[in-house]
Amino acid sequence: MPPHIYRPVAGLLIALGLSGAALANEPDKAPPHQAWSFEGPLGQYDQSSLQRGFIVFQHVCSTCHGMRNLTYADLAGIGLTQQQIAETAKTKPQPGAPDATGQPTMRPGLPDDHLNSPFPNDAAAAAMMGGIAPPDQSRLAMTHPGGPDWLYAFLTGYRMPPPADAPVVPGKFYNDWAAGHMIGMPPPLMNGMIQYPDGTPATVEQQARDITTFLVWASDPHRNERHSIGKAVMAYLIVLLALAIAWKRKIWKRLKTQ
Ligand code: HEC
Predict the structure, then answer these.
(1) Which residues form the signal peptide (predicted)?
(2) Domain shared by 151 and 55, yes or no
(3) CATH number for the domain including 216?
(4) Which of 1, 134, 170, 218 has an alpha carbon within 20 to 30 A of 164's alpha carbon?
């Protein structure tokens, strides 16, 4: 074969080989299934887990990720009181109106403020974070194909030290469940790094479970109401069915005895 033919062929073969190797790096198995209280047509969120999950978001994830579809006032949905909401919002200062000399100012956060990203924009976030901006978390639990099982596996899936045969990439961390096993997010959770007010031990697994529950709620906050309505409708239909059967029996009894 003349060189001008076999060079592209060799290139193609190498590319195929490389993409095969890259594919072999992808986590090919489904993440282990976890029991979630919110699963199934009648599932409900566990309110204490949601509140713990928000603590994890507030103390850990929100230092890099935003959740801009949500306002602090929306946290009434996980059972925070108006006072807790106002106090929580106040801890995140927001850009205010320019002062008399036109200089930008900051003001304390208010309940109607959104849970914005801590970075002014995605480009600034990417520059600070080694090239990739932390994605907004408003819909993460719904948009990531792996769903809550993957989120839990991912958050508990960092390996330090990484396996001996793993490539060393500066600024990347080894995670069993990241695409290509490498991710630019440093391991966010550590045992006991926060304290839960309800006394639940804050292990990595517990924090991962709680923040996953909170992320699922954020992407679908009305699930509890919907499932409660579902239950009421089912009960109503069962009563209606019982009445219909009783009525049918009554009519047929009359017809048969005539
Ligand atoms: C130090 C900053 C930082 C913190 C803290 C942080 N993240 Fe991230 N996160 C990132 C960056 C940067 C990326 C994008 C990394 C990439 O794609 O390589 C990311 C990506 C992610 C992804 C997407 C991964 C994927 O493969 O699609 C998820 C999910 C995630 N973070 C969840 C969380 C959760 C939950 C918390 C809180 C427990 C958290 N992060 C805390 C910086 C952070």
Answers:
(1) 1-24
(2) yes
(3) 1.10.760.10
(4) 134
pLDDT in tens, 226-255: 999 999 999 999 999 999 999 999 999 998
Residues 190 and 204 in one domain: yes
Q: Is residue 61 located within the same domain as residue 142?
A: yes
Q: Please check if 190 is assigned to a binding site.
A: no
Residues 181 and 230 in one domain: no
Q: Is the CB of 118 under 6 A from ligand 1?
A: no
Same domain, 230 and 172: no
CB 210, CB 53: distance < 8 Å: yes
Q: Give dist(CA 128, CA 116) in Å, integer.
A: 17
Shared-domain flag, residues 136 and 248: no
User: Rounded to two decimals, what is the model's pTM?
Assistant: 0.85
**1 annotated to a ligand binding site:** no
**Ligand 1 center from residue 185 Cα (angstroms):** 5
Distance CA 211, CA 220 (A): 14
